[in-house]
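Notebook entry, structure prediction.
Reason for the run: the old model in the group folder had no record of what sequence produced it. Starting over properly, with the input documented here first.
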Amino acid sequence: MSSARARELFGLLPVSLLVTAGFTAVLLTRTEEVSNVTLIYGGVFLACCLFGHLFIRARLPDADPYLFPLAALLAAFGLVMIYRIDADLAREQAQWFVIGLLLFCATVLFLRDHRSLERYRYTIAAVGIALLLMPRLPLIGEQVNGAYLGIRVGPISFQPAEFAKLAIIIFLASYLNDTRDVLVSGRFARISLKHLGPLLVIWGAAMFLLVFIRDLGSSLMFFGGFLALLYVATARLAFVAIGLLMFFGGATFFANTVGHVRQRIEIWQDPFARGVVDREGYQIAQSLFAQADGGLFGQGLGESLLELPGGALILPAAHTDLIYALIVNELGLFGAAAVILIYMLFAARGLKTALVAGDGFSKLLAAGLVAVLALQVFVIVGGVTKAIPLTGVTLPFISYGGSSIVANFMLLALLLIVSDRARRRPEGRGGLVP
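New structure, fully documented this time:
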């Protein structure tokens, strides 16, 4: 136990140094004098991380020692990049980081046994569906770039899809754990509509998101996460192939019949077309220009040009949708590859948790949480690099946004709860899982 927690603590120390060094580098591009404010930022961030470490040491002593430092590293990197864009936004993001850390602790405190979630799977699923519907409700729904992504109630604004992903994964992990024996039996005659129902429901939900909510990113994320869970539960590629055919068939149909879906595809195919590049295709075109300008080693922190002297934005939504393009511009291909590597390490530790988990629900829950986070990274990075159509999802832990960082800290809490239980060993049967 002490060795694992010592590794976690050791991994948090360079994270605070990154905050201090990053803020210093940004300040040096703005002024020749560097005050002790950078040390204060680094110290406060380190204090928050130490609080999280001590809490994990007390409540989850056997949990994976690398997941929390990796998440803190991504959050620290995001704070530096957002501070480079706007100091006020960075302060707000720091506040959301603290709130996310507190909700992380609350999740661990109140969810003593994650397996109790199985008993409430239908209630959790209903909450998830309600969250997805909320952006289309009158008075509170908000439309952003043609998609209904957020809701606003008075001064409070958030994106419910960030929390819905957790609810959907919990439901799917529980349901597939119950039906996996029938699905893997190989006897298709025994597979009824009752067992294939979730596949049809989730496919319908993905198509619903694509058309009604106009959210291609969440559609890909939810359905991709479901297919990943389906494969983990059954180890049968046939179900995955059927699911992919259903998704692409439905997406092709709606792309040819629904105006806004067709428009999004056309912009993706040629954002530089005359009459498009200055309007609908401006965001993706500027993203590609920014990444090309970064080259291998980038322009340096704080050196990229984000807006013209008159205030016109050169790189729109640099703090949210296009923050990866800004990373490539300032840190180059090597810096961007390092960020992707951190996500890959996080996913690897999450999948290790799924492998060592002792029961089916825990395995599926951990695998599903990792899959949905990894898919979210793929969706936004793929959109920014024009591999797939650009969507409005955030880069986990890095992009500006309270909903994103809070939901991802709750995701981290669930992973660590599963990990703590999975890595325990009865007395006399050896030590902890590495």
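Summary: The longest strand covers residues 147-153.
The old model has been moved to the deprecated folder.
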